[in-house]
Amino acid sequence: MLRSTTRSKTPQRSGFTRLGSLTLAILVAGACGDNPGPVSPDTPPEPSLAAATRTPFTAMWTNQGGPDLPPVGPRATGNVLHFWNDIVEGPITGDLVGWLTLLTDFSASFSANGIKGPIRGTSTFALPGGTFEGSAAGIFDVSLGLSSGHFRAHGTGAYAGQKMRGTYTNEACLCFDFVFEGVITNPNP
Questions:
Q1: Of 2, 111, 168, 172, which shows the fewest CB atoms inside 10 Å?
Q2: Considering only CA atoms, which of 123, 152, 111, 133 is closest in space to residue 61?
Q3: Which of 57, 70, 69 is nearest to 96 (CA)?
Q4: pTM above the 0.70 mark?
Q5: Per-residue b/e over 138-157, b at no fewer than 16 CB within 10 Å?
Q6: Phi and psi, residue 77, nearest 5°
Q7: Cα–Cα–Cα angle for 46, 51, 52, nearest 5°?
Q8: What per-residue confidence (pLDDT) applies to 127?
Q9: pLDDT tens-digit series, residues 90-130
Q10: Do 123 and 153 meet the contact criterion of CB atoms below 8 Å apart?
């Protein structure tokens, strides 16, 4: 026995099609509602995030008393002398006024070419209202009378959220007079 099936001439809509139709109806209704129209040139733009400010600075740091003896004394390995936790500190003047403390580790290599090596550590710039705390790294070469490197720090207190970065140089390695040049970036002026 043959069965005959009849199909309706109007196709049934699937759930997806019904959802699409509903979404389109909502969008059209929204477009026809309270539409403020084009923005006039006199209308101020929507508020946006302010651009970050970048403040360049130059500061001088003079260690009045020379380096303190490191709490973890030097250890020799061949012709290299290693120092840990060497603390040096002193006032900073110039565009930044306050106190700088460095806690460093360094290795001095003694050779016919002079005394030189890497230096790295932490830095704290104590300024009125807060501090910038971070790291520093560089090189020193006593025979050339030169020390240089870079530093990065983040702000605390009144400087929270701000970043400091730059370079330091010392052209008279044993005098402990350093020039710091850099930029303080404030992402939320």
A1: 2
A2: 123
A3: 57
A4: no
A5: bebbeeeeebbbebebebbe
A6: -130, 100
A7: 150
A8: 95
A9: 899 999 999 988 888 888 888 877 788 888 999 999 999 99
A10: yes
